[in-house]
Amino acid sequence: MQHENDIPSKVRHLSDTVVLNNGVRMPWFGLGVFQANDGEEVKQSVLSAIKAGYRSIDTAAAYENEQGVGEAIRQSGVAREQLFITTKLANPDQGYESALEAFESSLGKLGLDYIDLYLIHWPVEGKYKESWRALEKLYDEGRIRAIGVSNFQIHHLEHLMEGSAIVPTVNQVELHPRLSQRELRQFCARHGIQVEAWSPLMKGQLLDNETIVQLAAKHGKTPSQIILRWDVQSSIITIPKSVKEARIRENSDIFDFELSDDDMKAVDELNLNHRIGPDPDNFDF
């Protein structure tokens, strides 16, 4: 049975969720904290988001701000079980034993008893399968509610799933109208892997695009709201980053309108397969 809030075009609330392949519910929309400084900046960002109704927060060991995120969670006054917290395994910590140790370190910095979603941050060649074994162990022990990956191409996913007991719940990748990742999205859909977008606004580079600006005028919304609504209606979880309270609120104000099929097609046609972040097949960190 499909619940109404599982149908992306009908998503009407910031708290609406998608059911991952293991039955865990994850919000369609959340806050990313990449490049938010640890301490007051990230803490205020997370507190502003939670106050605005966000329930999903995405951090990573590599962001070096897990401690500030954890402080905000404790200060928010919202019950832990109402929040969905994602963090990620950093590249230098990949491998079996090192991944287990890195998880404990992240958990300690966040000050939490469990993580909702733990991701392998990048497909480090020769190491990500061992890392995945560690994540499977932690999942089986109930330390993590869902495990997944980030920045994995189709061939990485195929290799990871060979001989693995668990299919990733999520693949978080660079995704925006100039890099719509259609082939990867289709592969993930066939295998029950939920796609999540990082850098959904392409660092602001699309906000003056003619198509986006026209749609914003049509719907009485901002260009960023058009792009973020396109994400949700495309069955893509999205986590725009901001440290400004007004922008955090603006980004989440996308649940009172709907893009038409023609609107969606117009945004789809902006794809150029253009990356602004590192290439998952060619990175050296």
Automatic annotation (TrEMBL):
A GO MF label: oxidoreductase activity, acting on the CH-OH group of donors, NAD or NADP as acceptor
Family annotation (PROSITE patterns): ALDOKETO_REDUCTASE_1, ALDOKETO_REDUCTASE_2, ALDOKETO_REDUCTASE_3
Keywords per UniProt: NADP, Oxidoreductase
Keyword Oxidoreductase: yes
Chain positions recorded as substrate binding sites: 121
Family note: Belongs to the aldo/keto reductase family.
UniProt-recorded name of the protein: Aldo/keto reductase
